Amino acid sequence: MTDLLLSQVKLSGESQFGTDEYVVNMGPQHPATHGVLRLIVKLDGETVKETIPVLGYLHRSIEKISENRTYPQCITYTDRVDYVSAMSVNLAFALATERLMGIEAPARAQWLRMVFVELQRLASHLLWMGAFAGDIGALTPFLYGLRERERILDLFEMTCGQRLTYNYIRIGGVMIDVLPEFVPKCRAFLDYFEPKIAEYEGLLTYNPIFLERTKGVGVISPEVGINAGICGPSLRGSGVSCDVRKQQPYLFYDQVKFNECLETAGDCWSRYKVRMNEMRESISIIRQSLDRLEPGPIEAKMPPVLKAPTNSEIYSRIESSRGEMGVYLVGDGTAKPWKVKYRCASFSNLYLLDELTRGWKVADIMAVLGSLDMIVPEVDR
Amino acid sequence: MGIVRYFRNILAGLWNLLVGLSVTTKYFFKGTTTQQYPEERLPLPVRSRSMIKLIYDDEKDQFNCVACLMCMKACPNSCIKLEGVRQADGKRRMTTFKLDFSTCIFCGYCVEACGFDALTFVSEEYENSVYKRGSLLQDEQAMKWVRPHSPAAEAAPIENTAPATAGAQS
Amino acid sequence: MLTGENIVQLVSGLLHWAYAQAGISSLAGVIDPIISAVVMFGFIAVFVMFLVWMERKVSAHMQSRIGPNRVGPLGLLQTVADAIKLTIKEDVKPVNRDKVPYFIAPIVAFVATFMGMVVIPFDKGVVVQDLNVGILYIIAITGFTVIAILTAGWSSNNKYALLGGFRSAAQIISYEVSLVLSVVPIIMITGTLSLSGIVEYQKQAGYWFILPQIVAFLIFITSATAEANRAPFDIPEAESELIGGFHTEYSGVKFAMFFLGEYIAVVVSSAVAVTLFLGGWLPLPYLDFLHIPGFVWFLAKLLLVIYLIMAFRWTFPRLRVDQLMDFGWKVLIPISIINILATAVVWFCLYGKGAQ
């Protein structure tokens, strides 16, 4: 990386008027890189010749730290892996640990987990929608998205006491049962929220400028997408069925009715449309889960100190808001995991950025980067 | 036909621009959802994990803490330092309790681990900013909190008695 | 009756009396324009500050927010506070800048846009200088902005700024064409280039040009938005792509000049739109019995058009640079040419050879 930068400093030897590549350092502080992603962009005028993402500005070695923490303590770190969708990561780790240790969470806890994970998906997609629209240049959807997201966070805070790092979904169940007024409030929110999606779509979906910016931009063909390990809504925009909720149902996803949202074009607009439709499906899943919520215990019977069997390992995956969230655990018979590895959707989705933007304009980097729904803490961990 | 499509595209574009404008215009005339923070304070839900306090029993004139060290073991960041002695009556009592809020992540494990009703979250205090980093290292005197004697609070300790946030109402 | 013309006559009467007292009556021809320019400058400075406040309030309410509300009643003095803050701020300058152009660019940007205000008639007779080539003058003088922005982008020795400057050059030159072409039908109909003359024509004709020339109005507003570098055509500054674009490296007073220049450009283009298409100072039809002074009508219409431009900014995404060129050259210019031809044919059929 450094020699690449140095080569830009050097003037070309043969001629004073030799043309240099125009290298622009986007980030780590840049309005469109959603945090501290750094992109080294080689330009030819407005045209992008190469985009090199530089990672590591938000690396906190969560995986290594987790090796020195007990299993329940690891959950608090999963909150920080993807803080826009913390519930999903909580769930991913909790499910992996439960499968490793053979724990089965009671039914009520499972339904509650579904409610909260889908609410989290709504919140995450809302934030994504706002950020994506902001990257394209429309600033208002961001505020609208956050306005609705606040109400979801209010529901979370009411239940678990936090708005961002919940630590709510625990091994063997959930942290605490919901309050009696949670269910009516949640339903009221869903009724309030459902018509809002049409409003966002009115602002964006068929807006001619938005269509110009997103249609046909950053096309991922199904083959390339599968080969590059793209996952989640980004791959579903290319028409590949890859929803873990459908393919390997966890929790009670096999007992609720919902559609896997697919688009065929594979461009930024399709990925946008997939996420907008997913919000509608999430609302339906939450409604069904609330219907099936019955009184009962919320935590499985567990030993006071959780220990994984010796030489046990597991790879468990869920569909987080951004795509396939995998957790690989190796247990060594102690109360602490021997190895923790998170397989994060943002990291694998970022892989195609260079290929998708090469030959396009500078502004398309933002459209493509936004449409991949990349979250820097999840990339770096 | 190309010309017809050209003009139809332009008209459809204009129409969709108007649809977008109608949304923003609608909200222009609608009320706002913002709260003015220093003047308007939202009552936080009782479960809110905002500030950890050590419960002080003013009838017995002592902290509830018996220095069982469960909170220390539960803490994922080791931000609790705790010492206790066995008193003359054979019961353990906490002597020093230090919580470093600069490393605390408010996961709530210490409060959950406490079996002696000695630690609690106090939702009213959520303005934790300080001018010096050192002031985040709080000892038992800074964390001392006396549970208010109100019959309602004792009758329904877990019920969410606080009104919902204004954001969820409007 | 209170009209703008009366006020101007009163003030100039007072001034001329004062000249006579001071014994400088012979210099009246020199001092009068200076005074009116200064008055206009003061008005514009206050009006632009109001506009900045208005934009923040409009955007806030569109986004369910409150907007500035701390300084002064309804936050009206927020812009004053901002201006003071920008003035006393350290002027951070890049070391490798090109000193002279870097210094001149904001001044050009500010002055060029401000000079456009000189020919805008606020009421019958209330105009700094009623040029008989008013439209031509405005189009020529606002074209200076591109020089300022390109200079700013190039001289600040910043990659983002340079990109912004180049984008701006391409954009403003392209949209100048459609801007001029959208005005041509009006000039054809009225046969005058004077802004006051166009308003007088609308008064005699009994209709505003927005009715027969709605297409020209839409093209004009679009091109004017692009000329003023406002979203959805704000690619020279394009926050999410180029950070600040051409003014990335500017701070303090110099930044304020660009900022004010942008708003003055909005005022100028909206004022021209009001004059050409919305009847300038003419009252709404059937409301002339109210005897509201003409400049009030003018300001009301001006604020309406400015609101429209603000609503565009806070609703629409931003076009990409090549799409912007496409839109300008492949949509706006053909349509405005068709509009010119259609106007010519229709007016010829209706009124024969001369439209007069």
Describe the structure.
The complex is a heterotrimer of chains A (381), B (170) and C (356). In chain A, 54% of the residues are buried. Chain A contains 16 helices and eight strands. The longest helix of chain A is centred in the N-terminal third of the chain and has 30 residues, at 107-136. A three-stranded antiparallel beta sheet of chain A has the order 1-2-3. Chain A is 49% helix and 14% strand. Chain B has 170 residues and is an alpha+beta fold. Chain B folds into two domains: 1-33; 51-149, Alpha-Beta Plaits (2-Layer Sandwich). Chain B is built from five helices and seven strands; from the N terminus they run αββαββαβββαα. Chain B has helices at residues 2-29, 70-74, 109-113, 151-155, 166-169, and strands at residues 51-57, 62-63, 80-86, 92-100, 119-122, 137-139, 144-146. In chain B, strand 3 and strand 4 (92-100) form a beta hairpin. The radius of gyration of chain B is 26 Å and the shape is elongated. Chain C has one domain. Chain C is globular and about 55 Å long. Chains in contact: A-B, A-C, B-C. The A-B interface holds A 69, 72-77, 79, 140, 144, 147, 150-151, 154-155, 157-162, 165, 167, 175-176, 179, 181, 185, 189, 199, 202-204, 206-209 and B 9, 12-13, 16-17, 19-20, 22-24, 27, 33, 44-45, 47-50, 74, 76, 105-109, 112, 121, 123, 159-160, 164-165, 167-168.
Key terms:
heterotrimer; B: 170 residues; alpha+beta; 2 domains; 3-stranded antiparallel β-sheet; 21% strand; C: 356 residues; 0% strand
- Are there runs of chain A of 5+ residues with pLDDT below 50, and where? none
> Would you give the CATH topology of the largest domain in chain B?
Alpha-Beta Plaits
Largest β-sheet summary of chain B = 4 strands, mixed
**SSE order of chain A:** HEEEHHHHHEEHHHHHHEEEHHHH
Brief characterization of the structure:
With about 170 residues, chain B is α+β, with helices and mostly antiparallel strands. Helices cover about 30% and strands about 20% of the residues of chain B.
